[in-house]
Every structure is written in C-alpha cells, then in structure tokens.
Amino acid sequence: MDKTLALETMDSLVDKVFCDRYQIQSLLGRQTGRRTLLATDLATDSSVVVKLLLFGPDLTWDDLKLFEREADVLKSLDHPAIPKYLDYFEVDTELGKGFALVQTYIQAKSLQDWIQEGRTFAEDDLKAIGKDLLNILDYLHQRQPPVVHRDIKPSNILLADHGDYGPGQVYLIDFGSVQTAVHGGTRTIVGTYGYMPPEQFGGETTSASDLYAFGATLIYLATGCHPDKLPQREMRILFEDRVSLRPSLIDWLKWLIEPSLDLRLNSAKQAIDALENSKTRGRGLARVAKPIGSKVQLTNTSQMLEICVPPRGFYTGLIPVIVFAMVWNSFLLLWYTIVSATWNSIGWLLGLFAVVHLAVGFLLILMILENLFAKFRLRITNVRIVRSSALFGMWRWTVPPAFREDIEKVELTHSQIIICARTQKFTLGGEGWGGCNLTAPELSWLAQEVSHWLKLPLIRDPETITPKMVE
User: Fold this and answer.
1) Packing angle, helices 123-141 and 247-256, rounded to 10
2) CA–CA gap between residue 90 and residue 100 (Å, rounded)
3) Is the distance from CB of 168 to CB of 162 less than 8 angstroms?
4) H/E element holding 4?
5) What Rg value do the Cα atoms of the chain yield, rounded?
6) Phi, psi (5° rounding) for residue 4?
7) Strands across the sheet containing 304-309
C-alpha cells in the first residue's frame, strides 16, 4: 500500500466511532500492521490515544503477543509520567479486523521532534531530563516482575514545554516492545538500531539494556545526531569531540553505553547516584591514567581486578617502627625499675617479664620486616574480595574475605581507599601499621579503577578535592 492510498484509507477512519465511545480525530503514527490514532472519548470529552493492531499478511504471532503484553503491562502501571491504560477491545474497520488499545493522551512533543525543530539542550537540561527518565526507569525496573521497555529512543520520550525552572516534564511512551522477567518462550528481537545494546541483538535484555538506550538518547540530544550515524570503535560510540560537556558527564555517558554488560551501570538507581556524585564531588567518574613511575601492578579483566602494592621501603616504613619500639621499651624500663626495687619479694615476676620482653622483641622484629618489606594485594572477583600481605613469599589475610555482592560503596580519603562490604572495610594506602605506600596520584588512579570495575560511584572526601579536580 503506497503512501497516498494509505492516507486515503486513513481518511475513512476519521470521525469513525469505536466501541460507541471513541471518535477518531487524526493519525499520529503508523507501522506495519499498526496504527496510532488520536481520538476523543465521548464519555469524558477528553483526548485519548487508540492503538490499532490489524490482521493482515504481515502480522505475526509475535506482533499479537507484544500487543497483548503492552496492554497487560500498562494495566498494571500507575505512574504520572507513563500513559494510563483505559480500554481494550476488538475492532472491525475498513483496513481489516484487529484489536484496539486505548490509553491516555499526553500533549507534548517527542525529543526527536524538539531536535528536528532546532532546539538545543544545555548540560543542565541533559541532567534534568536524564534524572527524570531514570526515575521512570527505576519505577519500571523495581516492579515485580521487572519491566524492561526495550525501545528507549528520542521518539518514545515526550517533553512538555519548558518553563522557567527546567526543560519541562518528561514522559515515557510506547510500551509495544516491553518485556517482563517472567516472559518465556522464543526470544523476540525488538528495538531501534543505534539505540540497542549489543546483547539485545542476541535477543537478551536486562535492566541495563534500557540504560544503554537511555545513554544513547542523551548523546542524540547532545550531538543532534542519531548514534548509528556517529563513528564507532570496538562497538563504542565516539561522541566526545562533538559535545561541549564536562569530562565527568562525558565519562558518565560512556559508562552508560559501555558495550559490555559486566562493565556497564546496571541499575537506574546506580546511574542516578553516579550522576549526582559526579555533579557534587568533582570529577568522580573521570578516568585517570597510571602515574608515571608508579610500581603498583594492576590486573583488570572482566573476571578479576587485582592490585599489588610493592613494599613501603626503608625510610617510609621505619618511622612507625621506631615510635612503637620507643614506647614499648619505655614501658618495660619503667616496669623493670619497679620490679628491681622489690627484687626479694617478686623476683620471679622479673624473670617472667624478661621472657615476655624477648617474645615481644621477636614479634617486633617480624613487624619491622613486614612494615619494611611486605607487599600488599587486593583482589576482587565476581565472588569475593580479599586483602592480603606477603613477606618472603608467604601470603596471609589482613582482613577476612567478604562476598562481592556485599560491597556497598567505594570511598577515597586524603590517605586511603576504603571499600565497604557491610561490616567489613578493605583499605589501600593509609598510615602507620598495616598501611601501604601509595602516593596521592596513585590513590586517585586506583580508586577510580576500583569504582569503574565494581560499577559503584566513587565517594570522595571533600578534603581530597583539589582545585585541579573541581571543574
């Protein structure tokens, strides 16, 4: 059916009343086997959207299945930024028989329409739109079972006219490709090229798949160009040279569109935390290169992150040893003086403390050797996190291991990295006993590598943000 014939056929639907209630006003959009119509609900005198699925030679079982699933999902949702389900019934039109889904009408333009009309979006606009849409996705993904939209793109996101305090209200529409976690059977590949993550081409989708499409949508707003028209390298969209955004926001977008599911942000809540962290704490997501001359060894794979820190060295490690030795020997000297004054009555106690002194002296030697010559290792796998030290090739735990899933946050202070796993803390750096020799640039580099691998926002102590870090 050519375009002219299609329009003539659609004209025959104008003013037609479905189900004795919904009077068609105009055509909003069309796809193979589908029509989206603007109608008036005669019972309430309000505008509604009527989506038609018409039987025909191009209709497949998957089309009907997705249409019915869209109706079921909309019926279960209740969010001010998502169209509300109103009705569902069979229809018989000049175009053929089928089904109709009725939902509320939202009077707003799509992001794609805004761009095509020449509107541009500043960095603050991108953040405001991004946060609003992430809150919608968080609502969907937290459902039981989770709801994955699978077709996030500029034409499916509506933006109301902007006011004085922001870009306008954001809405998410078109749940025709929606998937729920309990969905089984054959896999249906849906989505829009340029906005689909790699795993979606294989028919697999998760909540993180929506985040990829969301990130690609923001890149479209920032560049005015669809992602499939932008250059790529190793499946990564290259957009940095086409935008004027802060490095922290660019890094956040790159985290969203990471091709690997293992490295991508995996929840809307996590993405919101990362966005707010980068905004309020400086360049929390900007990647830092390994400092020149650093002897720290970093192994970074999809299965493991391992950091090996060399020994502290003689001068760095000797100071806390000397302080400890002076305090300990001062205590023992005082004790010997007291015992010697009463030798006849408690001479045996002097002998006992002599033995204790020798034992502590031996332990002190071991502590000196460890503080001067031990190397430290932090290893995180998909199962657990372990921090250990080695002296003369013998490794031992410095903190009991914890499960990877228990890791809650990554913090960077002026002297150390702290990885919190419920009640346990795993540190790198630090001063005094158990510390390891890391410079400030090394701490910044390693903290962001850990944050990126764990897909957790890096929380900085405000005192660690130097003028060079703040944008």
Assistant:
1) 30
2) 6
3) yes
4) helix 3-11
5) 32
6) -65, -45
7) 297-300, 304-309, 375-381, 384-391, 394-403
What's the rounded Cα separation, in Å, for the pair 186 and 72? 19
- What is the C-alpha separation between 457 and 463, in angstroms, rounded? 18
287, 251 Cβ separation under 8 angstroms: yes
Alpha carbons 458 and 281: distance in angstroms, whole number: 9
Q: Are 169 and 162 in contact (CB under 8 A)?
A: no
Residue tagged 């119509």 (tokens): 37
Q: Taking the CB of residue 360, how many other CB atoms lie within 10 A of it?
A: 15
Whether residue 50 contacts residue 57, with contact meaning beta carbons closer than 8 Å, is answered with no
Burial of 467 (0-12, 13-18, 19+ CB in 10 A): exposed
Q: What is the pLDDT of residues 293-347, one digit of tens each?
A: 888 889 888 788 999 888 755 444 455 556 666 666 666 666 666 666 665 555 5
Q: What are phi and psi of 456, to 5 degrees?
A: -125, 145
Please tell me what DSSP assigns to residue 282: S
Please give the backbone phi and psi of residue 269, each rounded to the nearest 5 degrees, phi first.
-60, -40
> What would the mean pLDDT of 374-380 be, rounded to a whole number?
85
> Which position has the token pair 């069309």?
30
Residue in 168, 192, 176, 195 with CA at minimum distance from that of residue 114: 168
* Token digits of residue 446: 């390693």
